[in-house]
Each structure stands twice: as structure tokens, then as C-alpha cells.
Automatic annotation (TrEMBL):
Protein name (Swiss-Prot/TrEMBL): DsbA family oxidoreductase
Location of the DSBA-like thioredoxin domain: 16-214
Pfam families named in the record: DSBA
InterPro entries attached to this UniProt entry: DSBA-like_thioredoxin_dom (IPR001853), Thioredoxin-like_sf (IPR036249)
Length: 239
């Protein structure tokens, strides 16, 4: 048993970076699908998940305007109703209630800063989940400081830390750095996954497709590990 545990922990770790925005219903769907895929991985503990900021509408006001459904009608015209029905149905399939007729797009910069604070306390996934549910299901204003304070507290963050964050520019550079990194990687849409620095892929693939993708990368890491270990040993023995 001890040898088995040692072998497991000696395996090369893998990192998944998720570029997402709270305003995107596909990000909520993708989050559920990735969780399902990760749940099927035997070595789940070796996989690190990192949430990255990617604002869909940085020009949005903090004051809610049109609903998401109304905005979609402006983008897609007659096709809007069909697309909205599809998004809601895919959400239901993942156990989500996506209320596009209640959600009102707002600026998400402060929400992203809150996620970075949560990440420093190991609560990034919990914080993102709370924000996505608040916006897409409850129709809350995720730009309003009072709402963000409550959501941060509910996610387990210290109230003082959240209060201080929202009255400062803390973690602003973290958000901007994520968005610069996204631009460098050619990411233009969300959710996008970057697995171990590889080219970005869509984060709304099915759980089965995501599971296969993750397993392929883990297999590649495990195949490369013995060669790397041998090379290291040879260098140590070289005169």
C-alpha cells in the first residue's frame, strides 16, 4: 500500500487553466461538464484546476440594463428564441437553471478580482460556482459591491478581506495579466481550456470528450516521465 501511494504521488502533475466569464451560460455548462470528466479520472488529485479571467464585455456598466435574453435577441434576431431554448435545455441536462430572462449583463471586473482573492485561499472553484449561480439562476447583480460581499462571505472568504478588496484595486493586475495571457494564446471565446500549456480547446465539449482529452494528456505525461527520469540519471552519472 505504501509503495502504491508513493508511486501515485510521484506521477507528473497536470494543470488545467479555464478561461471563463461569469456572464457566459456556456461557462456554467462547461464547468459542470469538466467536473463530470474529472470525476472519472482515477488520479484526480494530480490535476490542478486554475480559473483564469476573461471578461466578455469589459465595457458593460455596473448598472444592469437589458436581460441576457433581450441582448441575445439583438445579436441573433429571429434565431434568438431557438438558441435560448437550446442553452436552457443544455443547462437542464447538467442540472442547471439558466434564467436568461432574469440575468442582466454587467461589468464583471470586480467579480473576477474576487475570484483571484478566493484562489489565494483555495476557494476559487467555490467562488466561481457561487457567482455563476447568482447571475444565471438568481438574476443577481454581480457588479454590486454589497452583493459581491455577500457572495464572497457565502463562499467562505473572510468578510474583512472581501470588504477591503472591493474598496481597493487589489488583484486588478491579476485580472489584466490573465487577459493578456489569453490574448497571447489566441483565446477569443469562453470557456477555453489550456491543458499544460497546450493550444486552447473548447470547454463545452461533452464530459466523455473531455475525459478522453484529459486521459490522453495524462498518458502522454506518464509515457514521457520514465524518459525524463533516465535522462536525468544519465546526466548525474556523467563524468
Amino acid at each position: 500500500m505504501q509503495r502504491s501511494n508513493a508511486a501515485r504521488h510521484s506521477k507528473v502533475p497536470m494543470k488545467i487553466e479555464i478561461y471563463a466569464d461569469i456572464l457566459c451560460p456556456w461557462c456554467y455548462i462547461g464547468k459542470r461538464r469538466l467536473a463530470a470528466a474529472l470525476g472519472r479520472i482515477a488520479d484526480r488529485d494530480r490535476i490542478q484546476v486554475v480559473w483564469r479571467s476573461h471578461e466578455l464585455a469589459p465595457q458593460e456598466s455596473k448598472v444592469p440594463g437589458l436581460t441576457a435574453a433581450e441582448a441575445m435577441a439583438g445579436w441573433w434576431g429571429e434565431q434568438a428564441s431557438t438558441r435560448i431554448i437550446r442553452i436552457r435545455a443544455l443547462g437542464v441536462a447538467e442540472g442547471l437553471e439558466l434564467n436568461l430572462h432574469r440575468a442582466r449583463p454587467v461589468n464583471t471586473f470586480d467579480a473576477h478580482r474576487l475570484c483571484h482573492l478566493a484562489a489565494d485561499h483555495g476557494l476559487a472553484d467555490t467562488m466561481m460556482e457561487r457567482l455563476l449561480h447568482a447571475y444565471h439562476t438568481e438574476g443577481l447583480n454581480v457588479a454590486e459591491p454589497q452583493t459581491l460581499e455577500r457572495l464572497g462571505n457565502e463562499a467562505g472568504l473572510d468578510p474583512t478581506d472581501v470588504h477591503t478588496l472591493l474598496r481597493s484595486d487589489d488583484y486588478a493586475e491579476h485580472v489584466r495579466a490573465d487577459e493578456r495571457r489569453a490574448a497571447q494564446r489566441g483565446i477569443t471565446g469562453v470557456p477555453s481550456l489550456v491543458i499544460d500549456g497546450q493550444p486552447p480547446v473548447s470547454g463545452v465539449q461533452t464530459p466523455e470528450e473531455l475525459h478522453q482529452l484529459l486521459n490522453q494528456r495524462l498518458t502522454a505525461l506518464d509515457s514521457a516521465a520514465p524518459a525524463a527520469s533516465t535522462s536525468s540519471t544519465q546526466r548525474q552519472r556523467a563524468p
